User: Fold this.
Amino acid sequence: MNDRTNGCVKAGTVSLTIGDLVRLVSYVSAIALTVARLPVHAAEPPATALPKPDPQLEQLQYFEGTWSCAVRPAVAPADKSAEPFMWSIKRKLNNFWFLGQAATKQNVAITHDTLGYNTLTKRFGRTILTGDGQFINLLSDGWSGERWIWEGSVVRGTQRSGLRETIVKKGDRAFEATYDQSDPVKKDWQPVLKETCRKAS
Assistant:
């Protein structure tokens, strides 16, 4: 049983003065404050290294740069001139993706491109969004000699058609491309456009 005598607190055979209690409380508080300030290392998430881009992406490196292009219908009168445009591709997002834009000579955007490599399916992918609302999704196995084939579909409003682009290198700084369209089921490919591109920078 504790009692208080002349400013002392007796607990069994131990006597503490009020000053002793004040100093004890201050000491315990200081320890608690010090512990609270210590870094909690266990709560920090382990550092993870950023993955490296797949080496297959180097196949797309050919397209990086700015290209001066012209496109015309596959079947067109001899006097019909080709429509010029500029196509720019840059490697972005920690070198994982190639982002591009096609624009008229007056710098009016026509399309936006995203090109990359799917490490799960082991195929290249390309998505094109056009200024008239078309959504184009294409896949490829990459270069086969001097030829690269993109194949997929184009959606216009509520209509979907098959789309295939065949690119043929004409050296390191030029290529030609043909676009074919088809019924997505029948695959009755019909040529619709021809394109020529020469690297400007």
